[in-house]
């Protein structure tokens, strides 16, 4: 009986609830609020910059159209010097052996022939080779020409350079065809200078979809003509080498005057 | 020759699977399109996180109250000259563990006084005798018992935080490994290593690890914080027990 008083004190104190249930409710509420916040917060906070697809190639077609030379600049097809093709050395034909040689066992101590040092071609060290015949360029040489490798340069000028950064669009011919077709439907002469950037998607079947204005020049006529040019254009199917189902293009229409 | 304006093209290669308008998969889509195993992992982690946050909130509130009331109690204890005065205050400071220790000690003292007073009641003529303690060790034991109970009370549910802290990352990792396994199977069945095929799977797999870490990190921090505080409270109780014993020894022996 005497000890029970201390035990009673201890037991009563041990049975006080710690208020966890209320806190569970609060915690659930806080988690729901957090999830809601994550869902509704601006995408940029999440690191999802919705800047559209990655630009992999920038081609500029500045100024007046160039000569219709198949899409290549004269420089693009410039001849470069290359060593003459090595002709296979003709060997004298030996007569067939009169009789079948007996089979010989390979010798165990036979050693493979040591690699013979190859002679470097003449004049290959420092100077431009002068012995070879000039040939059609077969290597990629930086000739300083704009648009080389794509055959899309239709002229100089315009002020914008070419940045070719091909990641995985395969087919420059398709692009040049696309530009030609769009230019056919485009009224470039609107009386006011300015430039409009349009964004559109080419589907696998070649239809132009999702035409959107990305950058306005401030003149409605510019936007409408650009849009009209895109809507009127019928493109061929996307090339087979291009694996994706659609291709998004940003196209700048520059109105000179 | 006609003059043309200039055209600048920026070509883009669009990721094949993603729709154009919605550039990014949002959180809901990731979770609803995840595999069942991943959803289960996420649900478990959410539950662990909810529980651990509930404990964190409850414990921080209760520890704040404990520290507050203990300070008040010590103040009263040191100022008053009689244990009965202190006992009167105890009811208003229920959260302080020192109150429990004090009440246990006080109950033991009273019990011993009653025990010693009974034989002397036969002699009613003299002045009431000065109460004396039979055993100081018994008071010490009562204080120790109360302190143990109070520490248990303070520590209750804190080990759950340690469990969450150590287990949640592994659960998340499990979800991730399963998700990545499935993503690789998808590569195998479609035969395409296109990121559009693999990317979402890996992304949803990694969400599980993120959720595991999200549950574990606060739990680690809170566990360390709370165990330090419990240690401090325990030291405070030891100190108080010794003080109580000293006073009892000085006055009642």
CA gyration radius of chain B, whole angstroms: 33 Å
Classify the oligomer.
heterodimer
β-sheet strand percentage of chain B = under 5%
**Lateral arrangement of strands in the main beta sheet of chain A:** 5-4-6
Please give the count of helices of chain B: 7
CATH architecture label of the domain at 168-257 in chain A: 2-Layer Sandwich
Radius of gyration of chain A over alpha carbons? 37 Å
**Structural class, from helix and strand content of chain A?**
alpha+beta
- List low-pLDDT spans of chain A: 66-72, 146-166
Largest sheet of chain B: none
Question: Separation of termini of chain A?
Answer: 109 Å
H/E series of chain A: HHEEEHEEHE
Structural class of chain B: mainly alpha
**Arithmetic mean pLDDT of chain B:** 82
Largest interface: A-B, 71 and 54 residues
The total beta strand count of chain A reads 6
- What is the count of β-strands of chain B? 1
How much strand of chain A? 15-25%
Model description:
The complex is a heterodimer of chains A (257) and B (253). Chain A is 23% helix and 15% strand. Chain A has 257 residues and is an alpha+beta fold. A 3-stranded antiparallel sheet of chain A has the order 5-4-6, with helices on one face. A two-stranded antiparallel sheet of chain A has the order 2-3. In chain A, a hairpin with a 4-residue loop joins strand 4 and strand 5 (208-215). With 253 residues, chain B is mainly alpha-helical. Chain B has one domain (35-118, 131-252). Chain B is built from 7 helices and 1 strand, in the order E-H-H-H-H-H-H-H. Chain B has helices spanning 27-32, 36-79, 83-90, 97-120, 136-155, 158-190, 195-252, and one strand spanning 7-13. Chain B starts with 6 loop residues before the first strand and ends with a helix. At the A-B interface, helix 1, helix 2, strand 1, helix 3 and strand 6 of A face strand 1, helix 2, helix 4 and helix 5 of B.
């Amino acid at each position: 009986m005497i000890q029970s008083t201390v035990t009673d004190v201890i037991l009563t104190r041990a049975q006080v609830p710690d208020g966890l249930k209320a806190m569970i409710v609060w915690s659930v509420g806080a988690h729901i609020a957090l999830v809601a916040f994550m869902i509704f917060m601006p995408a940029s906070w999440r690191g999802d910059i919705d800047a559209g697809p990655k630009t992999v190639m920038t081609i500029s077609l500045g100024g007046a159209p160039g000569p219709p030379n198949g899409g290549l600049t004269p420089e693009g097809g410039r001849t470069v010097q290359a060593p003459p093709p090595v002709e296979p050395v003709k060997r004298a034909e030996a007569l067939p052996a009169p009789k079948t040689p007996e089979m010989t066992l390979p010798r165990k101590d036979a050693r493979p022939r040591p690699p013979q040092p190859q002679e470097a071609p003449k004049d290959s060290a420092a100077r431009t080779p002068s012995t070879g015949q000039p040939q059609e360029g077969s290597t990629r040489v930086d000739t300083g020409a704009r648009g080389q490798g794509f055959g899309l340069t239709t002229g100089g000028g315009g002020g914008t350079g070419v940045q070719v950064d091909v990641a995985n669009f395969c087919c420059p011919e398709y692009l040049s065809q696309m530009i030609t077709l769009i230019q056919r439907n485009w009224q470039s002469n609107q009386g006011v200078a300015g430039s409009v950037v349009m964004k559109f998607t080419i589907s696998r079947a070649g239809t132009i979809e999702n035409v959107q204005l990305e950058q306005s020049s401030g003149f409605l006529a510019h936007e409408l003509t650009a849009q009209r040019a895109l809507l009127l254009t019928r493109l061929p199917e996307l090339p087979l080498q291009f694996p994706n189902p659609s291709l998004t293009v940003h196209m700048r229409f520059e109105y000179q005057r | 020759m006609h003059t043309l304006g200039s055209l600048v093209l920026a070509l883009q290669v669009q990721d094949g699977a993603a729709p154009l308008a919605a550039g990014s998969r949002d959180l809901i889509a990731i979770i609803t399109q995840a595999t069942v195993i991943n959803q289960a992992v996420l649900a478990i982690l959410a539950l662990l996180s909810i529980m651990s946050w509930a404990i964190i909130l409850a414990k921080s509130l209760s520890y704040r109250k404990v520290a507050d009331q203990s300070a008040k109690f010590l103040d009263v204890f040191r100022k008053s000259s009689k244990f009965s005065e202190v006992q009167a205050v105890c009811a208003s400071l229920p959260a302080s563990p020192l109150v429990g220790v004090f009440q246990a000690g006080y109950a033991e003292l009273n019990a011993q006084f009653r025990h010693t007073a009974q034989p002397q009641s036969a002699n009613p003529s003299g002045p009431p005798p000065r109460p004396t303690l039979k055993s100081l060790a018994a008071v010490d034991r009562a204080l120790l018992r109360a302190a143990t109970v109070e520490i248990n009370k303070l520590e209750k549910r804190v080990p759950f935080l340690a469990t969450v802290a150590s287990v949640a990352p592994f659960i998340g990792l499990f979800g991730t490994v399963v998700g990545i396994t499935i993503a690789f199977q998808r590569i195998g069945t479609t035969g395409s290593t296109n990121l559009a095929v693999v990317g979402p799977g890996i992304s949803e797999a990694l969400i599980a690890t993120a959720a595991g870490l999200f549950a574990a990190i606060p739990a680690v921090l809170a566990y360390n914080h709370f165990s330090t505080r419990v240690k401090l409270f325990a030291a405070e109780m030891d100190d108080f027990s010794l003080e109580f014993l000293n006073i009892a020894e000085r006055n009642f022996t």
